[in-house]
Every structure is written in structure tokens, then in C-alpha cells.
Design brief:
Blueprint lengths: L2 H4 L7 H13 L13 H4 L2 H6 L3 H10 L2 H5 L12 H5 L6 H14 L6 H13 L8 E2 L5 E2 L15 H12 L4
Antiparallel strand pairs: 1-2
Helix pairs in contact: 2-8, 5-8
Bound molecules: iron/sulfur cluster (2 copies).
């Protein structure tokens, strides 16, 4: 069942709506109430093309205070964090930040996090990158590493323990 199918059953969660809008204000983004549903965010959304995420609907549901419906939906995990929606919004609203807040609420509520997220987090914790440098295959089917291409090594945290502690501190911040 899609998010919009669930809305007719929902009760608004006013306090959670306020928390998310407060987060947007702190980040110098505008609150969801200023959204006029132009869908410019959705028309440029990379996840919309592949996975049917519609950021303008996420903002509309937040305006209505229907937070639980989104927190319980798999669709919030399809955002690729490309930030295009934030760049494109004429009202300076950031659907991507709303999605971050919803994902944090899902984790805080003990919802199952998709497996790929866990492996990305493990990689960030261990090497400071979402994945280590990969080799590429050229048009003539030769495999090339960064070194082969004359690229410098990727920079990684000098002090992994300190880096992990800092990251975990950020991760447990509320919403
Ligand atoms: S681009 Fe901005 S104003 Fe337009 S629908 Fe998206 S969030 Fe709302
Ligand atoms: S940040 Fe997420 S919601 Fe925004 S445009 Fe990119 S994929 Fe879509």
C-alpha cells in the first residue's frame, strides 16, 4: 500500500510535525507549510525516476502532520541524498532534510533499516567512505585502478577511533 493510500486512515501528529519543521528552520530551510505543491522537487528527483519517490507528496504529508504513515513506509529509504530537491525548491524547503528526519524517527522507533544502509554505515565507520575505491573497466575491457589512472589515494580519517566517536555522537542526536 502506498503512502497516499494510507493517509485517509491517519491521525495528525502535531508535535512530530513541529519537531521536523524546527529542524528545517535550524538548517535555514523553510517549514513545510510554505510548500505550494508545484512538484519541482519531484520533477528533478533521481529516486522518482527509478523508485517512485515523490518528494512533494512527502512535504504534503508533513503539512498534514501524517508522520507515522511516512515513518512506516519503505519509500523514505529510497532517497539518494542528491540534494536536488533542496536546490530546486522555489520556497527554500528541503524535502531531503524532511526525509533525513523521518529516517531518524524510524531508527529511533526501532524500525528495520534496509540492509544496504547498514553496510554503508559500517563502511563509513571503518574507513570514512561509503565504499572504498573501486577499479573501473575501460572501453577496451581493461581494468584500471586509481593508481593506474594517476589519481591520488582517497583521503581517510587519520584517527579512525576519534572519527568513529564523532560520527556516533552525531548519529544519536535527536531527529
Ligand atoms: S519544489 Fe518546494 S514548493 Fe514545490 S512542491 Fe517541492 S517542496 Fe513544495
Ligand atoms: S535528495 Fe532525495 S528526495 Fe531530494 S531529489 Fe535527491 S533523491 Fe529526490
Amino acid at each position: 500500500m502506498s503512502i497516499t493510500d494510507l493517509t485517509s486512515m491517519g491521525e495528525p501528529q502535531v508535535e512530530l510535525k513541529k519537531e521536523i519543521n524546527d529542524r528545517l528552520s535550524k538548517l535555514q530551510d523553510e517549514v513545510s507549510d510554505y510548500c505550494y505543491q508545484c512538484a519541482k522537487c519531484t520533477s528533478g528527483c533521481e529516486a522518482h525516476k527509478l523508485l517512485e519517490l515523490e518528494p512533494h507528496k512527502i512535504v504534503a504529508l508533513l503539512k498534514q502532520g501524517l508522520i507515522d504513515e511516512m515513518v512506516n513506509s519503505d519509500i523514505i529509504w529510497t532517497c539518494m541524498s542528491c540534494f536536488k530537491c533542496r536546490e530546486r525548491c522555489p520556497q527554500k524547503i528541503a524535502p531531503v532534510e524532511i526525509l533525513f528526519a523521518l529516517k531518524n524517527l524510524a531508527v529511533a522507533g526501532g524500525k528495520q533499516v534496509p540492509g544496504k544502509y547498514t553496510s554503508v554505515l559500517q563502511s563509513v565507520l571503518s574507513i570514512g567512505l561509503i565504499q572504498d575505491a573501486q577499479s573501473v573497466t575501460t572501453k577496451d575491457m581493461k581494468t584500471k585502478t586509481r593508481d593506474d589512472l594517476g589519481l591520488p589515494p582517497l583521503s581517510k580519517p587519520d584517527d579512525p577511533a576519534k572519527f568513529q566517536a564523532g560520527l556516533m555522537k552525531i548519529a544519536v542526536e535527536k531527529v
